[in-house]
Write a structure and sequence with these properties.
Length: 97
């Protein structure tokens, strides 16, 4: 998992609101998409119960990025971070707990 972080640039969660996200899905394998959702649900629970920070690896229109934050909610379309910042679910490559 560390290799995916090496391919991504770190971004502060406060700067995510300025990013632009394409509408295409970054994960083509259905099994991997289910795993992503499972990991996001676990990370959301950890964020709400224990306030644990996790790493989210995602892709905007300029390439791979990651942030370290607490997930407040996971919806059908987005991951919601503190201060109402969102990342589209379909642009998330991996969640590292």
């Amino acid at each position: 998992m560390e290799t995916i972080l090496q391919k991504a640039d770190f971004i502060e969660k406060e700067n995510i609101a300025q990013l632009h996200f394409p509408h295409t899905e970054v994960i083509t394998d259905e099994k991997q998409r289910k795993l992503r959702l499972h990991d996001l649900e676990n990370a959301t629970a950890l964020g709400n119960i224990e306030h644990n920070k996790i790493k989210i690896v995602f892709e905007d229109n300029n390439g791979m990025k990651y942030t370290e934050t607490t997930i407040w909610a996971t919806t059908e379309e987005d991951v919601v971070l503190k201060s109402g910042i969102t990342i589209p679910l379909h642009r998330i490559h991996r969640v590292i707990i």
